[in-house]
Automatic annotation (TrEMBL), chains A, B:
Species lineage: Eukaryota, Viridiplantae, Streptophyta, Embryophyta, Tracheophyta
InterPro entries: ALMT
Entry GO terms, CC: membrane
Protein name according to UniProt: Aluminum-activated malate transporter 1-like
Family statement drawn from the similarity comment of this UniProt entry: Belongs to the aromatic acid exporter (TC 2.A.85) family.
Entry superkingdom: Eukaryota
Main location: membrane
Keyword Transcription regulation tagged: no
Keywords from the named record: Ion channel, Ion transport, Membrane, Transmembrane, Transmembrane helix, Transport
Topology within the bilayer: Multi-pass membrane protein
Length: 454, 454
């Protein structure tokens, strides 16, 4: 009996362990599959990423030849290590990125090396004891100044990496000079291996499946225009076409809103790139930032429109659906609606024409015509409204609607801050608040309190 | 005569050179003063930048002691160089940045060192000739895979620097093993000097005037809320207070629109930071992104409102100014206006209360009351409008106004793309365009052509 119970327990325990093990293995299996899918998607989204990975592998393997081929290794000594280091750090996804880092690294090393040697020669004059002290002072002064220069926006944008390398090399050369006998040889070897690594990176970057930041920027701008056009096409076909359920196009402009950071990075990298595939070295990359700002402004307006429509869904009769407006304003209503549809459609055409023009790199011609047609429609709407005698009220009411939307979004902010307060365990000043709440002007504090407790 | 002429010419040339020299010196002088002012402003804007620069200088000077103090130098050999290198690269402005880079560097070096040694031991088995080939294959494989992993968003966010260091160290150790005799000693020395450099950086970062990314993020969120509140306060005091000239508050929300990139960087760094000044290690940093998204949505609505008001200035009677609406709608007009003023004022109070709550880290209490009061006002406006019988029309007209604004912003985009086309010398397809232009539906092509030529 006792033995049977014990073996039963053993079996149970075994099954428990087994089920645990199976659960863990299943979870691991799911995770591996998820990771695999993610990696596959990343590769499929932009196959240039896979090529870039192989390019880095290839460059590193090539640079390793330095170590293998003995005559070359003997020429450079242990400095050959710097070539490996350079390749690992300098190779970037875009040609602009590689050029920026490579040029920065080479020139910063040159400058810092020269300054370091100068420091060494001045320090020698101070004798055995003075030398380390003077070098220390120089290192402190130069590295502090260089670090501060990184806060200057112009330096930060184009030479940030160079300044880091400057600090690094200067300290290294100035300090090594105290120990290394043949400091000139040391500096020269370092510089040549770095220059060699940079040259290799830049060549591979440019000549084997190059990825141009400029091209990406150009493409991004045209894609963003297409996204805006999609929203307006959706408005025309669905919303004003009385299909009020499908709102998938409401998402299309969202990614445009936060495109500024990507654009700025690409512009900074594109400026480093030589002329390529039709873009000259002096291509006006900065203008893309101007276009980008206008595009984001437009996306902001679309966001407001989408928010307003979503609010209407919940609180008021839908445009184009029942309940219809009163019969006496039916005609006015129809006029405004048709004008809106025309505006959306013509503006959408203008934007997608622009996107195509940018893609084809041709001067825009048709876009202005479509915008003019959209303006015609806007004028028509204004006329209809002022004939309808509601002109003045409509302007105030539009402002009112927007302020109302702002109020609603403020409520959202309150909600998310409250969630933060709860998650982070912010203290609640019950007592403090009671003295802080000012009585409401219209004496509706009762109603308000109920809202709080909702 | 000849001599006089010659000397006169000489004097003239001298004056020409002198004026040239003075112009250049003046320009240089202006540039130096400009630079000095800029540097002063950068320092004044955030004095922690100056402190950070001195901290970097101090850390580098400290690490140089390794080179000076002979017993320490003898212990580490030329590997002491890696400590200098580490400090120059790892020291960042925020504690989170330094921790992120330091931890990444240490663990990536450890992992890559171990893998490199493993590779070395496997490669030895293949004999003299096979060794370099096998090492080459390993380097190619690991560096390609590691480079690809940088495209996975989660890796990119937190471990990007670590992957770079992994590639660098792995290549270096695997390849050096072919040459350096005592590879274990070499790896060990490298790892200890790097760890030492990292420890020094982290200590100085944390204990001498620390700059916390988390604190900056917290501060940024509350400042952004204040900016939104300022806009609404401006609306209340100026626009609805009939001061229609001062529009300075129209700028206050602009910087909020593009705050996403900064916020994301700060969140990623804040996650690395230990508990500090009231923020625990598990502080819900992610929630700040949620709040940030709501804040940006609100700023977007403000942008639309500001755009609409600017348009009204140019094209239609100003709200609150002459010409007033027709006498029969005067009362309705006044009601809407007062409701708008109340909404602005209450929402502004809610937002600035939230900003204060975040600053004080107390749970928001009064904000909900103010939002409720603003909602009351919105309800009042809705009632007034529906009593005024224009309800239906107003909704359509608001949508119309927004679509009209989108049209206008599209015109802006067309303008900036045209400028790009001109600057970049895009080809104009006169012929192609002629076939592409579709005839306008309402037969107003004559008028439209005139608009183009404006």
């Amino acid at each position: 009996m006792e033995v049977e119970k014990e073996s039963c327990e053993k079996v149970n325990r075994f099954y428990l362990w087994l089920s645990c093990f199976i659960t863990i293995m299943n979870k691991l299996h799911t995770m591996v599959i998820m990771l695999f899918k993610k990696v596959k998607k990343i590769g499929e989204d932009d196959p240039r990423r896979i090529l870039h990975s192989f390019k880095v592998g290839l460059t590193l393997t090539l640079v390793c030849i330095f170590y293998y081929v003995t005559p070359l290794f003997d020429g450079f000594g242990s400095s050959a290590m710097w070539a490996v280091l350079t390749v690992a750090v300098v190779m970037e996804f875009t040609v602009g990125g590689t050029l920026c880092k490579g040029v920065n690294r080479t020139f910063a090393t040159l400058l810092a090396g020269a300054l370091g040697l100068g420091t060494h020669h001045i320090a020698i004059l101070c004798g055995e004891k003075g030398e380390p002290i003077l070098i220390g002072i120089f290192v402190f002064f130069f590295s502090s100044a260089a670090t501060f220069s990184r806060f200057i926006p112009e330096v930060k944008k184009r030479y940030d990496y160079g300044v880091t390398i400057f600090i690094l090399t200067f300290s290294l050369v100035a300090v090594s000079s105290y120990r290394v006998e043949d400091i000139i040889e040391f500096s020269h070897q370092r510089l040549s291996t770095i220059a060699l690594g940079v040259a290799l990176c830049i060549s591979i970057s440019i000549f084997i499946f190059p990825v141009w930041a400029g091209g990406d920027l150009h493409h991004l701008t045209s894609t963003n225009l297409d996204k805006l056009a999609n929203f307006l096409h959706g408005m025309r076909d669905k919303y004003f076409g009385e299909d009020l359920v499908d709102r998938s196009y409401f998402q299309s402009y969202k990614s445009v809103l936060n495109s500024k950071a990507t654009e700025e990075v690409l512009v900074n990298l594109a400026k480093w790139e030589p002329g390529h595939s039709g873009f000259g070295f002096w291509h006006p990359w900065k203008q893309y930032l101007v276009i980008g700002a206008s595009i984001r402004h437009c996306a902001c307006l679309m966001d407001s429109l989408a928010t307003f429509i979503t609010t209407l869904d919940k609180s008021a009769p839908l445009i184009g659906s029942n309940p219809r407006p009163k019969p006496d304003s039916e005609e006015l209503y129809g006029k405004i609606r048709s004008a809106c549809a025309d505006m959306s459609s013509e503006t959408a055409k203008a934007l997608s024409d622009l996107a195509n023009d940018i893609k084809a790199r041709s001067a825009p011609a048709t876009a202005r015509l479509h915008v003019a047609a959209a303006e015609e429609a806007a004028e028509r709407m204004k006329m209809a409204l002022s004939n309808g005698a509601e002109g003045g009220i409509v302007h105030v009411a539009t402002i009112g609607s927007l302020v109302g939307e702002i109020t609603k979004s403020a409520k959202e902010i309150v909600g998310s801050v409250e969630e933060l307060a709860q998650l982070a365990g912010f203290k609640s000043h019950e007592a403090v608040n009671r003295t802080m709440v000012k009585p409401l002007a219209d004496g509706e504090s009762q109603h308000t309190t109920i809202t709080v407790n909702e």
